[in-house]
Amino acid sequence: MNIKILELEKNKVRMVFVSEKHTFMNLLTDTILRDPAVNVAKYVIEYQFSDPELLVSTDGSKDAITIIREACDQIGRSCDELLTQVGSV
């Protein structure tokens, strides 16, 4: 996965996820919004074939990049758990 950082501050980040679509971006945004330190988490895909741009803004108690990393870790753990449950059927 290629990522381009457009803007980076302590409590705000804007980044582009190259070649990703709504499926991953919806999951990521939903997971990020569960963190109480998040003020804003949204993504935009301007055109059908454009890359999504993610914006995350926090209250300053946590760094925006850390929140994104934690959300990705949570998504990975959820996928691992699902694979374990499917494998035991």
Automatic annotation (TrEMBL):
GO aspect biological process, one term: DNA-templated transcription
Annotated DNA-directed RNA polymerase RBP11-like dimerisation domain residues: 13-84
Annotated EC: 2.7.7.6
InterPro entries listed in its UniProt record: RBP11-like (IPR036603), RBP11-like_dimer (IPR009025), Rpo11-like (IPR022905)
UniProt subcellular location: Cytoplasm
Assigned keywords, A-Z: Cytoplasm, DNA-directed RNA polymerase, Nucleotidyltransferase, Transcription, Transferase
GO molecular function: DNA-directed RNA polymerase activity
Subunit architecture: Part of the RNA polymerase complex.
Function description: DNA-dependent RNA polymerase (RNAP) catalyzes the transcription of DNA into RNA using the four ribonucleoside triphosphates as substrates.
Protein name stated in the entry: DNA-directed RNA polymerase subunit Rpo11
Gene name tied to this protein: rpo11
